[in-house]
Amino acid sequence: MKPLINKQKVVFFTGAGISAESGLETFRDSDGMWEKIDVMSVASTTGWQQNPGLVLDFFNQRRQKMLQAEPTAAHHAIAELQAKYDVVVITQNIDDLHERAGSRQVIHLHGSVLCGRSSVHADRLYPISEKGIQLGDLCEFGSQIRPNIVWFGESVQNMEEAKRHVIEAGTVVAIGTSLVVQPAAGLLRYARFHANKMLITLDVGSQVPFGFRWIRAKASECTHLIKSL
């Protein structure tokens, strides 16, 4: 039996578009990062096995850029809603801009570039120093510490927890996502029939999910809508 809808719960599902306005490169746009580099060389277990140094350099650079970026007006608008609602952010992004804007409940589906993890025990996480993860940085099990990022072919993190929140939510708002990355984008189909559902993004790579109102705009152009929920 499905739980009752909680009208006080607002779930935001965010993608690269909300962070792009902070100056961070997206991965999948026509001029995005995957157009400039070989994705499998830096974001797959095969790439890690073949050249861990290259992978570490790539994500260390990404981490530095993310630390220099600042949350946008949309990040702050979402955090401010916590004064009125039980707000849960489910994000595909690997930065910490939601947290720095003040959001307290943030679920990362694809990991976070701001911590490392054991190569043999995925649940063992480690803080990263200013210099980033280096070759030879070993966990207590003797394996190289790797970025805590979900690579191609790996299981998405926290899916069941995220699904539960979407099912319970009285309002579900997707922002800055083209909905092409699966299985994460499939979470929106669990939004309830009577929930208030909104999609704020410039482009949708597939069909707009059933019942969602599509607002074709950047996240920063819709902060008034976010604040008025």
UniProtKB/TrEMBL annotation:
UniProt-recorded Gene Ontology molecular function terms: histone deacetylase activity, NAD-dependent; NAD+ binding
Pfam family, one: SIR2
SUPFAM superfamilies: DHS-like NAD/FAD-binding domain
Broad enzyme group: transferase
Gene3D superfamilies, sorted: SIR2/SIRT2 'Small Domain (3.30.1600.10), TPP-binding domain (3.40.50.1220)
Keywords: NAD, Transferase
EC nos: 2.3.1.286
Entries under InterPro entries matching the protein: DHS-like_NAD/FAD-binding_dom, NAD-dep_sirtuin_deacylases, Sirtuin, Sirtuin_cat_small_dom_sf, Ssirtuin_cat_dom
Presence of the UniProt keyword NAD in the record: yes
Source species, domain of life: Bacteria
Residue intervals of the Deacetylase sirtuin-type domain: 1-229
Listed PANTHER family: NAD-DEPENDENT PROTEIN DEACYLASE, NAD-DEPENDENT PROTEIN DEACYLASE SIRTUIN-5, MITOCHONDRIAL-RELATED
Protein name (Swiss-Prot/TrEMBL): protein acetyllysine N-acetyltransferase
Organism of provenance: Limnobacter thiooxidans
